[in-house]
């Protein structure tokens, strides 16, 4: 009885009543879950010489991560997890503009700390694989665990178009799924369908630049690699990385 009473008082004391704070924390948590799973898949693929993972596990893992992120916070913040989606919601009048920069900062920060968590989790494997040198290019590069980089022959212009088209398809698909006037997805299964949409885009448009589809997913971890020792090269367009 005493324990129950204590837990009740603790919950009341810790309850966050400010709606914006609740939404920001929810967005932080959902984005963290999304990115830590996504980057963890990349780490297993790269740092273990593709013996513990491959492109299929990376694609499936990152798609399922989207589903988990939506289930984590969809009912509180909407689980945007992506500045591009937040912007689309603003443009369609479904999200207030004043919240947009706040969500972008939260999403980017969550991506940054997710990268840090993956670095800690796979610290030994990353340093073993890289032979003690953190590089962005070359046969033992490890920067692509955290951020996306172009294939050898992809130009800046082609990379830009690649991301515009891929992100555009994602947004059109998600907005269509959320439109109540369309054929509705069975209630509760929306995150599953969005995950399948993400998986289909990765399978069809992932070859050029790795299919980030999410500015926060790319910039937050890229910023982490900059401060963690990979250096300013992470912000340069690297062609012929192999």
From TrEMBL:
What keywords are assigned to this protein?
Cell membrane, Glycoprotein, Membrane, Repeat, Transmembrane, Transmembrane helix, Transport
Residue intervals passing through the bilayer: 20-39, 59-79, 100-122, 160-178
Signal sequence bounds = none
Give a single Pfam family match: MIP
Q: Which family does it belong to?
A: Belongs to the MIP/aquaporin (TC 1.A.8) family.
**Record's superkingdom?**
Eukaryota
The record, for InterPro entries, names: Aquaporin-like, Aquaporin_3, MIP, MIP/Aquaporin, MIP_CS
Q: Which gene encodes it?
A: Aqp10
Under Gene Ontology molecular function, one entry of this record is:
water channel activity
Protein name per its UniProtKB record: Aquaporin-3
């Amino acid at each position: 009885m005493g324990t129950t009473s204590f837990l009740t008082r603790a919950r009341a004391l810790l309850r966050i009543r400010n709606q914006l704070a609740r939404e920001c924390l929810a967005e932080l948590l959902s984005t963290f879950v999304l990115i830590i799973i996504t980057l963890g898949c990349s780490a297993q693929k790269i740092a273990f010489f593709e013996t513990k993972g491959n492109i299929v596990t990376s694609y499936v893992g990152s798609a399922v991560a989207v589903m988990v992120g939506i289930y984590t916070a969809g009912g509180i913040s909407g689980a945007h997890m992506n500045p591009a989606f937040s912007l689309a919601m603003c443009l369609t009048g479904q999200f207030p503009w004043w919240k947009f920069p706040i969500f972008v900062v939260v999403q980017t920060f969550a991506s940054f700390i997710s990268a840090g968590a993956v670095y800690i989790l796979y610290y030994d494997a990353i340093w073993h694989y890289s032979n003690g040198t953190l590089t962005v290019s070359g046969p033992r590069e490890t920067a692509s665990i955290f951020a996306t980089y172009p294939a050898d022959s992809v130009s800046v212009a082609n990379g830009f178009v690649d991301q515009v088209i891929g992100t555009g398809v994602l947004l059109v698909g998600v907005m269509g799924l959320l439109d109540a006037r369309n054929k509705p997805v069975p209630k509760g299964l929306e995150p599953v369908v969005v995950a399948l949409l993400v998986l289909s885009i990765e399978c069809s448009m992932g070859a050029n630049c790795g299919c980030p589809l999410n500015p926060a997913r790319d910039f937050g971890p890229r910023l982490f690699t900059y401060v963690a020792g990979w250096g300013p090269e992470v912000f340069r367009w690297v062609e012929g990385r192999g």
